[in-house]
Amino acid sequence: MRIIKLTQDTKKNMQQDLLKRSPNNYGQYEASVKEILDRVKEEKDKAVFAFTEKFDGAKIDASNIQVTEEEIAQAYEKIDENLLAVMRRSLVNIREYHEKQKRNSWFDSSKDGIILGQKITPIQRAGVYVPGGKAVYPSSVLMNVVPAKVAGVEEILMVTPPGKDGSVNPNTLVAAKEAGADRIFKVGGAQAIAALAYGTESIPKADKIVGPGNIYVALAKKAVYGHVSIDSIAGPSEILVIADETANARYVAADLLSQAEHDELASAILITTCEKLAAEVSAEVDGFLKELSRADIIKKSLENYGYILVADTMDEAIEAANEIASEHLEIQTADPFEVMTKIRNAGAIFIGEYASEPLGDYFAGPNHILPTNGTARFFSPLCVDDFVKKSSIISYSRDALRAVHEEIELFARAEELTAHANSIHVRFEEQS
What we know:
Elements: E1 3-5, H1 8-19, H2 30-43, H3 45-56, H4 69-78, H5 81-99, E2 106-109, E3 114-122, E4 125-129, H6 138-151, E5 155-160, H7 170-179, E6 183-186, H8 189-198, E7 208-210, H9 215-224, E8 229-230, E9 238-243, H10 249-260, E10 267-272, H11 275-289, H12 295-305, E11 306-310, H13 314-324, E12 328-332, H14 336-340, E13 348-351, H15 357-362, E14 388-396, H16 398-402, H17 405-414, H18 418-425
Parallel strand pairs: 1-11, 4-5, 4-7, 5-6, 7-8, 9-10, 9-12, 10-11, 12-13
Antiparallel strand pairs: 2-3, 3-14
């Protein structure tokens, strides 16, 4: 891996390179995505079936687009029993973590007849996108479906690309069943997002679409926002490790590569105050590349978006980490909790040398659907709040309104909204 001195210039250049991976910079695909969205909106099922055959090579129609209970039962026969046991243990952790995020409606009343509050209501129907293609991610099924289930969503629809034979990976199907998805449809790509956004004869319109996907999925979600709600626009995966001279170079290298193997646009960055560690980590990376199965992908990822930055001080390292706002942030220092208190921007923070990033991907419980491309400055991980909406509650007695009606009317007239003022005035016009 390249080793660079951390300066304002190197940091700026690196950030510019990282931002090139944003879906906002892939305008050449927007026309294709728009065509898919428009056709599905107009032709509904017909377009979904056509695009599924074109892009996935699968002949899907109204009779087989929805996964049947028989197909799910067959998936249970094919899944490795040990994997199923681990999946169920992971589900317990994910549910328990997200249960703690639940919030209740509240109401506050006063003696003068005023009741104010907030009513929290789950969305009616959520659409969950689960990637297929190059890799299968049953862990993403759990992370998308569980918070929706905990929130109390009435119906959870899952869409995922089928194989050429029209089947869905058994691990994906079992994960969906275990997590609580209500209906599963064999469709992926931008056409799946369009179906969830607009509705078709086979796939109902969703209120919100969540889940990561490729560039076509990301751009489609961006385009349909407003017709439906979305979680965020996911970019390529990324990891940033802050380490000092106490860190284990082999651990750090392994953790960096755990994200670099996702795809060629993934980013892996180490910021350290120790030049010796920087050299050791680079050497460990070279060693791992000789034995890892996805070495070719990792090499291209590191060539494009892999960095080892050497900082003069830990404060400089922390400042750079906050500016980069990485999806995953590991802290492997002598006092990692002290460093953690200074982190403002990160999707998920892993503290200490035994909190490796894959722990969060699969098992610990916090959600692994995280903000990318610097959006951790203003976005949060997927959570229960993403599947509920809040309504304000206002109730005034006549006496309570009488005490303030003239003030409200004054405010409305100041904005030249006389109908607003009149709406209040008519309730007390006998006093005029």
